[in-house]
């Protein structure tokens, strides 16, 4: 469980990323230097690079954690549950916690940087590859690849619909309910496509 | 069937778009003016604007035709065929004809212009909306929306895999066979998710 030293390190790491996101949102990603992030977070440049080898890593600071959570979602499947049950739980949990998707700061920085967009797409593809590999232990490789892709594509659809519902003036509670219904229906369809037990 | 005048107009329209794509690929989209396109296609600027109201339309010159072909694919479903049969045929046909996706010129211009990328995503979303509306005549709205989204997402996966297989040095014939197998499997899964008759 870490101990004090580990906890301190995790706190410093998180603080640096928080400060970085704030600066990126204020000034733009390209216009912000690592030195400025270090100064604002009250650490040395070397410390920043210890935690985050590249400037993009300051933005995608939770990439590893996110990939891990997807893989755990596949592994967490319980006896008799559908192949995709863990992935459904993970997606539902995410939209229950953040029905509007990433924070406004995160979106703004991303929208302003083609480099981060390209990097983000690449990382998304890596997460998808990892999930496809995990699913391939239960179904054939081609099916696993397609399922992983379709699971990951539920999120962009959900976020697009949230945006529309917001523009249409729906209440937050109503949006939350609708997005969870959408995610559930999408997984119902995927479950049926492989059969609840996971057989194709 | 048009007649001579209509055919001439279609030829002029296509020639302007071909010339534009070549110039965009040589110089970049932002660096090319409509006047330069007109001069290279040997028509007036007014003629270009008659066919293509905005410069982006010169690049996405087949947008309407593409949306129409998706809608016809939904409408073309025959007695006893699955809800998605027409869409499957359309996707297979496209990859049979162009297993590597859009032309090198098209990709290069797109890669160099965030504006065109944004516009392209928007148009893709419109095609998806149109297909969702067409499917909603047979299944409930939420299911139709999800199916349309998952159908449209088969293409990016197929193109990504084609890229990988190309990097791995596979022969063109092998790639073509694999991408058609992928598209077929993806539609098999979607068919099963709604039931072959289209009932959910």
UniProtKB/TrEMBL annotation, chains A, B:
Keywords from the named record: DNA-binding, Transcription, Transcription regulation
UniProt source species: Kribbella pratensis
Residue ranges occupied by any HTH tetR-type domain in the UniProt entry: 10-70
One Gene Ontology molecular-function label: transcription cis-regulatory region binding
SUPFAM superfamilies given in the database record: Homeodomain-like
InterPro entries referenced in this protein's UniProt entry, alphabetically: Homeodomain-like_sf, HTH-type_TetR-like_transc_reg, HTH_TetR
DNA-binding region: 33-52
Protein's UniProt name: TetR family transcriptional regulator
